[in-house]
Amino acid sequence: MTETADDDDVDRAGPSTGPRASKGAPKDRAPGEHLSLAPRVTFGPIAFVTGYVIACVLAAVIAVVVIGWGTSRDFWGYLWIVVIAAFYAGGIGLITAAPVGLALGLLLRNVPNQWLHVLAFFLVPTLLAWLVIGLIAGSVGVPLLMALAIGCSAAIGRLAVWPLMDIRT
Prior knowledge:
This protein has helices spanning 45-66, 75-95, 97-107, 114-137, 141-160; strands spanning 40-42, 166-168. It is mainly α. Strands 1-2 form a two-stranded antiparallel ribbon.
């Protein structure tokens, strides 16, 4: 059996104020006026995976340029080092960076300014990486440089997926 109904008096933004409204529904809005919600930034799995891959490859390129320079004799050797470093960064990042990126993305959903997202994706991973690597290494300088590389990679990864974000008002 098929049910047929029209959606003329359905208010998609909130409870209905039409003739089908329940007795406890708010009546302070004018008929036809929609409940306005704060803008929300939404992202899908494609945006998350794209940003994550870009950040991992960028971290690998930074590692090769800073640490691996001079370790190979030709372009293909450097390319192989970048591939290995990207897999290494991606593997460690599944445990460390992916949860941080997902949490940041969810926490910043109500912030429509995309530049604040990029700034947060730089500051939070940088500070977390500096704290963790600094505590493990027992020093400040080198962990700060490593943390800055991680933060730059995360921020550029977030900047790269800017067009994939949807701001719903």
